[in-house]
# Entry
Amino acid sequence: MSLSERLHPGINLAGTDPESHEAAEEVLFGFWIFLMSDLVLFAVLFATYAAMSVQGIAEGPRPAEVFDLTAAFLETLLLLFSSFAFGFAMLEMKYRENRRGVLGWLLVTGLLGAGFVGMELHDYYVMVTAHGATPQTSGFLSAYYLLTGTHALHVSSGLVWMAVMAVQVVVFGLSPAVKLRLMRLALFWHMLDVVWIGIFTFVYLYGVVS
Amino acid sequence: MNWELIFGQIKWTSFVFAGMIENPSLSEAIASGAGSIAVLGALGTVVLLTVKGWWVPLWRDWLTSVDHKKVGIMYIVLALVMFARAVIEAALMRAQQLAATDGGGFLSADHFGQLFSTHGTIMIFFVAMPFITGLMNYVMPLQIGARDVSFPLLNAISLMLTMAGAVLIMVSLVVGQFSTGGWSAYPPFTGIEFSPGEGVDYWIWAVSLGSIGSTLTGLNFAVTIYKKRCPGMSLFRMPLFTWTTLCTSILMIFAMAPLTAATIMLALDRYAGFHFFTNGDGGNMMNYANLFWLFGHPEVYILILPAFGVWSEVVATYSSKRIYGYTSLVYATMCIAVLSFAVWLHHFFTMGQSANVNAIFGIATMIIGVPTGVKVYDWLLTMVGGRIRLTTAMLFHINFLLTFILGGMTGVLLANPGIDFQVHNTLFLVAHFHNMIIPGVLFGMFAAVQFWFPKAFGFRLHEGLGRASFWCFAPGFLLAFFPLYWLGMMGATRRTFTWSNPDYLPWFALAMLGAALILAGFAFMVMQIVVSVRRRAELAAPLGDPWDGRALEWSIPSPPPAWNFAVLPQVTARDAFYEAKKDGTAYRSPAAYEDIEVPRNTATAPLIGLFACAWAFGLVWHIWWLVIVSFVLIWAVVIARSFATHTEEIVPAATVKAANEAFLAAVRATPGVTRDQEMTAANRGRAIPESLEASAGALAAGAAVEVTR
# Structure
C-alpha cells in the first residue's frame, strides 16, 4: 500500500499529499457528525409517524388504503440506482481523475434522483386526488407527509448541491476542495438511501401489511 | 392596491404604541415603554456608532471576523444585552405578583403572559445558551492548544443565526405581541385555534434559528476537540472545562434535533392546518411534550455542564491546587451526559402514563444526583489544604456549592412522582429550577467572566465592585426564590398574574426584595465593567497569567494574538502550563517559527444572519415575498461563498516571531507576583507559581530560563 492509502484507507482522495489527507479527515469527520444529527431528526420523525399511524387515523383513511407499493418499489429502485451511479462517479474521481467521467455519472445520478422526486410528487398527487388524503385529513397523514416530505426535500437539496458541484468540477477541475465536497455529497446521498430503506420498509411495507 | 401582499398581516394596530394611543392603561404604557426602550436603544447604538466612526471597525474587525475569540466575545455581549431585558421582565413580574391581591396589580393578564414567555425563552435560548457558547468558543481552543475551531466560518454562522433569533424577539417588543404560551409553548394552547395571531410564530422562528445555530455549534466543537488537540494533549490530559465542552457539544448534536422537529410540526399545524398537536383529527399534544422535553432535559445539562467546567477551573486555580479527583470528574460528566437522555419524562409525570413508567423515570432522575454529588465532593476536597483566595469568582463558587445542593435536594423531591403530583405547576417548581440555573449556570458564567476577562482583554476587572455585585446577587437570589418554595407548598400556581390568598403577601414581598437586590447586583456588574475599562492602565495584566493559571490559555499574551499560539505547544502532563512553570520550562523561545495560515474575514456569516432574520420576520407576518426572497438570498450567499478560493491568508513567520519574542522578553523582564499581591497593581500577569514562592527571591528578578542554542 502507498503511504496515503495506509494513512486513510477510507478516503477517496488518492494521489494527494499526506497533509491534504489530514485536513480531509477533519472535514469528513465533521460531516459524519452532521449526518448523525440529521439522522436524529429523522429518528424523531419516524417515532412520531410510528405513534400517529396507529393512533392518529381519526376519520381519515388507514395506511393500507392509500399506499401504492408498486410506485414505492420503483422509487426505491430509482434512488438506489442513483446511489450506484454516484459510486461510479467517485471511482472515476479516485482512479482516473477524469472530469468527464465524473460529470457523466453525476448527470445519471441527478436524473435518477430527479425521477425519484418526480415519482414521489406524483404519489402525493394521486393520494390527494384519488383518496382525498391530504396532510390536513388526519394526524397519521400529517406525519406521513412530514416524514416523506422531509426526505424528499433532502433529496431535492441534494440535487441542487449536485448541480452546483457539476459547475465547480467544470470551473475548478478536480481540485482537493472540489473532491472533498463531492465526497461529502456522496455521503449525504447514501445516507438518504438508508433513510429511504427505513421509509420503504416501515412506512410502506409495514403499512400495507398491517 | 392590496397592501397585504406587501406588508402581510402587519397593520397600524400591530405596533405596540398603537395600543397605548387607542386604549391607554398602565399595562399598555409599560408595553409602550419597553418598545420605546428597544427603539431608542437601537437608535442610540446607531448614533453612537456614527458619531464615534465605529461602523467600519465594527464591520471589519468584528461582524465579519471568523476568529473564535471574537465570535466568543460577541456571543457573550449578546447574552448580557438579552440578560438586561429578561431580568427587568423578571422584576416586573415580581412587582405585579406583589401588587396583585384580589385582582390588583398593574399588568393585564395577557401582558403578564407575554412577560413570562419572553423571560423564559430569552433566559434559556438567548442568555444561557449564548453565554456558554461564547465561553466555550473563547476558552476551549486555547485550552487544547489549537489555533481556531475546526470550521471557523460555520462558527460565525452559528453566532449570526443565534443573533437573528435574538433580534426577532427584540422586534416583537415593537411590532406585534409575543406568545403567551410560556417558554415551552405547549399546544393545543399554542395552536392556531387558541392562539391566533403572530405571538407563537415569533416564538417558533426565534427558537428555531437559535436551535439550528446550537446544533452547528455542537458539531463544530466536538470535531474541534476530537481533531485539533495539540501534540501530547491526550483526552485525559484535557482541562476539565474542555471535557465539559465536549460533553455539552455531544448533547447539542443529539438534543437540538427533537426541538427543531417539534417547532416545525407546531408551525405546520399553525400555518398549514396539519394535525400533529390539535385536539381533533388524530392530533396528539402528548407527542409535543415528549419531543420538547427530549430536547428540554438534555438542554439543562447543556447549560450546567460548561458551568461545572468553569467551577472546576475556578476552584483549582484559586486554591492553587491540582483538581481533586480529575478522573472521577470526567466520568461523572460523561454519566450525567448519558443519563440526561433518560429522564425527560419527569417533566410530565401528571400526563397520564402508567405508574411504572413514572417510577422508572423517577429513579433515573434520582440517579443523576449521584455523579453530581461526586463532583461536589471533588470540588470540596480540592479546597482542602489549598491556598484559597476569596476572590469574586471563588465567592460565587462557594455560594454555588451551598445553594446548588439545596436546589438538588428539591430536585430529588420532585423526582418522586407522588410528590410531583402535589407540587407540579406551582411556584415550588419555579423555585427549584431557578435554584439550579441561577447559582449553577448564571453565577458560573459570572465567575467565568471574572476569571477569563483578563485573558480576553488584557486587564483585570475591578475586584471591589465584583464583590459588591456578589453580595447583592447571592442574598438576592436566596430572597427572591426561597420564598417561592413556601408559596408553592401553600398552593400558589406558577404563571399566575393575580391571586386572592392574603397569606401569600409577606412571601411575595420578600421575593420582590430579592429581585431588587438582583437588579442591584447587575447594576454593580455593569459598573464594574465600566470602571475597569476606565482604569485599565492600573489593572493591566498583558503578560497573560494573572491568577497563576494551570491550563495552556494562560501561557500566551492577553489578549492573545489572532494565531493564539506562535508555535503549537507540546504537552506532557495535565495542568500543562502550571507544570512548565514549576519546572522552569515555561516562556521558552521556540527553536523555529513557521508561517501561519489564518482564515480571512468574510461577509458570508453576517449576510446569512441578516437574511435569516428577514426570512423569519416574513414568516411571522405572512409576508410571502420576503420569505421567498430572503430564502433564496441565504442560499445564494452560501453558493457564492463555495466559489471563493482565497479564503485564507498567511501570517509570515517573521511577524509571529517578532510578536512572540517581544512578549517573552516582557515576561522575562517583569518580576513575578505572589498570590498575596494578586489583586494589586503589581500583578501584570506574571505569576510566581505557588509552589515556588518560598524561593521567590531568586526568581522574582525574572531571570528565567532561556534556551541557549
The longest helix of chain B spans residues 109-143. Chain B has a mean pLDDT of 93. The two ends of chain B are 82 Å apart (CA to CA).
